[in-house]
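Continuing the batch. This is chain 6 of the set; chains 1 through 5 are on the previous pages. Same settings as before, nothing changed between runs. Recording input and output for traceability.
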Amino acid sequence: MTEKVEGMLSPYRVLDLTGEQGLLAGKLMGDMGADVVKIEKPGGDAARNIGPYYRDEKDPNKSLYWWVMNTSKRGITLDITKPAGAEIFKKLVKKADFIIESYPVGYLDKLGLGYKELEKINPGIIMVSITPFGQTGPYRDFKGSDIVLWAMGSGNYMRTMGETDRPPIRIGHHSQCYNHAGTEAVVGALVALYHRRSTGGEGQHVDISIQDAMNFLTAVDYDLNKTRRFRGTKYFDVEVKHIWPCKDGYVMWRYTGGPNAVRHSVPLVNWMASEGMASDWLKNFDWANFSHFNTTQDIIDRMEKETIDFFMTKTKAQIMEGAVKYRIMLYAASTAKDVRESPQLASRGFWTEVEHPELGKKITYPGKWANNSETPPRISRRAPLVGEHNKQILLEELKLKPEDYRRLEEAKVI
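Output for chain 6:
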């Protein structure tokens, strides 16, 4: 019988130098059991200033974004741009397995901390660099915000977001494309780890382009569906509803014809008819030959009027119950409260309580994102406070002398 470990990456250490563009990568590896050390500049990372904040208290230790993206990490402050800070970082590299960073291309090389220098210190080190356009190519030095990378790296998605008669928009309050790059960074890191084990210890530099990651997403979507997406609800000359109001919110559903009608249109109309809310015209409609490409707006409007009248007599829960009973391909549009109270998520142990000693209470977090039978991911600790583990790592692990530690503090190296 093999010895059971706490997590699938529990023997390994990660040095996390990322900003907003790469925080998720370290979080995922930490949840998988790696010892992730988040390294911030003295005073704290800029991502600590991303809201919202716990109880609306604007505090670098109370950013909810920071909390979610930095679970299962320890944290130190270290100015690697100063010689003394760079030397401490090199000492940490000697015992590390991974470095994740999101600085501009060439920045670490100028500090003498690029991959070519660090592999001399630790030949097995795996450095993962996350940048907008990668380490090579004519755009390598360009900056790229989330909206730029959505536009340049996932055109097929961005062009679908928003209304038909308006320009495309980005999705979400926070940077979705950074999260896609973060997950790709973990994949690249683990493939490099497999290579290291297969070659007896050879590390490598993993180059993650956020634009590449987003284009891969678009390519996969097209390969699966073989179709281009449309923005908004307009299909050629008609407007078609996808989101429908009901008594206490909204549901997602759409009229369809042809073979798909048996999963969408027909069962809903049968339900409406059973309650006397479908006209003879709707009950006898020729669904087999219906298509949004060859109908008129008058017909669509007539369908939608009857359907809205029906949905408005019911709550989301009642519509969901009917959808199951009549086998309708439909789902309620969930609010944050709906997601938090989902019986499905609760049954799978998705939510977890994380202790915040400084607050004297536990906070509910999204927990394991995979249900591995032997080593499931789990949150081992809440996100670190600014410089929380400086003494633990620098004094206890690196064995710095107390007087040297004080000098580093005074010089704002840590």
